[in-house]
Design goal:
Length: 166
Amino acid sequence: MRRVARAAGITPMAIYHHFADRKTLLTRITEQEFARLLECIQSHPLKGSAADRVVTVMEGYLDYALERPRLFDYVFVQTRPGARRFPTDFRARRSPTLNVVADVVSDAMQDGFLRKDDMWEVAFALWAHVHGYVVMYRAGRFEGSEKQFRALVRRSMRRFLRGLAA
């Protein structure tokens, strides 16, 4: 809390005016970051083919991960109290961000582009696929520019989707 206060230019006691404890502060930050991620996802209009729409949703995730790397690590890489857990929390639609992915996947299944399957497991697999790429990119496992990395992820997503195609 002292480091946060110092970074914010306030006294540690001033933080306690707004947050009861560290856990409350981190929960608030996490909520704000999920809202920011949702904004990133929704900033890409869903248009084109079913495959285009799925790839587009994942572009928002890439934007967030690459624009906010340290917050991305806290929200998605580190163990965090209260983190949503698969499958219960996701099937109960407690994840505003994965809900968007699942809805696009469901539409792709209804349109006949993707084989009928468990939309939540497919959505989670797609998210995990891109997440793995992001973690490896951030660990320095790829040569080239961010633009080249994004193009690689898009190509990989399309390959992944072809494997799930009806």
